[in-house]
Amino acid sequence: MDTIDNMRTFLAVVRAGSFSAAARNLDTVPSVISKKINRLEDQIGAPLFIRSTRKLELTETGAQVHPRFMAIVADVTDAFADLRAHGSPMAGTLRIKCPTTLCVLHFGRIITEFQAAHPEARIDLVLMDRSVNPLEEGFDIAIGAIPTSYPNVEATPLCPYPRSTVASPGYLAQAGELSHPRHLLNHDCLSFHPIGSNWVFEGRQGPVSVEINPHFSVNDSQVLVEAALADLGVAVVADYLARPYVARGELCRVLEEYTIPDLWVSAWVPVSRAQDRLVVAMCDWLREAVQPVAPWDHGASEGGAAGHAAAQLLTSRSAGPARSAGRPPEGT
């Protein structure tokens, strides 16, 4: 199985474009990636990459084995799925990736309820705030809302994921005009790493795209909200996270004439695993739990139950005292 693992690493390097980027994506260090690639090259008897300080390229051998390695990894995964299918219908291990905030507030409960209903199943749940190729990184299901596509991976849409553009009253009191998305070029903007710095809005005259220069960037949705509450600038955040703070006047919706297109929470599954009974059962369970009403829309008012849960979690994560809208705590 070490060879298969090395093949997965090779595929991850090809996708990421460098050893260091692949290491970050696989939550390891570049030296581990390098050792696995070296072992694979020793087995093949030829280099797979042209290594230079400028960029990483596949050798002729690397280009030849790339599609074959993808097929081999898929076949091995499929073989294990077939073997498991002859046992208990729900026996086996299900490895799932889910974004941290989404899991802590909503999907963690849904997945643990599945585990309780199917005790013979084993769940390996990994919280990760980036898009992953489940085929390359060994996941049966990758849950997320980042628009993407991968070869030999199919997406099952689960529910819409609305977003809002917000800022604190304290920031807006000292900031410049903000009536058009292009005004963001003169504002402090707070970005979410997985989405990037290109913000797209829909207005009456059509789409407006703005390439912001982030004042603050983070890969955690809760911290992004904390940054907005701390008067650091304008942020695009999940609508359900913003609701309780908007209701209390701690955040304000801005650019309301320009909507942010909804993302969709989806479950990405390798094609080779799509017919596995355990995978199918989990995808069906997820779909039934979030349709026709997404979990954050139950009691969906500005101060609804889902919003209060998000606010309580954010408050519990904060080390500082509660803040008044737009003002720092007394004594600062």
The main sheet comes to: 5 strands, mixed
CATH class of the largest domain: Alpha Beta
Percent of sequence in beta strands: 15-25%
Number of strands: 14
Low-confidence stretches: 301-308, 316-332
What is the CATH-assigned architecture of the largest domain?
Answer: 3-Layer(aba) Sandwich
**CA-based shape:** globular
Keywords: DNA-binding, Transcription, Transcription regulation
Pfam families: HTH_1, LysR_substrate
Domain HTH lysR-type: 1-59
GO molecular function: DNA-binding transcription factor activity; sequence-specific DNA binding
Give the gist of this structure.
Keywords: DNA-binding, Transcription, Transcription regulation. One of its GO terms (molecular function) is DNA-binding transcription factor activity. With 332 residues, this protein is α/β, with parallel strands linked by helices.
Q: What do you see in this structure?
A:
It is a single chain. By secondary structure, the protein is an alpha/beta fold. It has three domains: 2-81, Orthogonal Bundle (Arc Repressor Mutant, subunit A), CATH 1.10.10.10; 92-160 and 263-297, Periplasmic binding protein-like II (D-Maltodextrin-Binding Protein, domain 2); 163-261 and 307-317, D-Maltodextrin-Binding Protein, domain 2 (3-Layer(aba) Sandwich). 41% of the residues lie in helices and 22% in strands. The protein is built from eleven helices and 14 strands. It has helices at residues 2-16, 19-25, 30-44, 60-85, 100-117, 134-137, 169-174, 221-229, 239-247, 277-290, 305-317; strands at 49-51, 56-58, 92-98, 121-127, 141-144, 153-161, 163-167, 189-192, 198-203, 206-211, 216-218, 234-238, 252-253, 263-270. It has a five-stranded mixed sheet with strand order 4-3-5-14-6, covered by helices on one side. A five-stranded mixed sheet has the order 11-8-12-7-13. Strands 1-2 form a two-stranded antiparallel sheet. It is globular and about 65 Å long. The protein starts with a helix and ends in a 15-residue tail after the last helix. Residues 301-308 and 316-332 have low confidence and may be disordered.
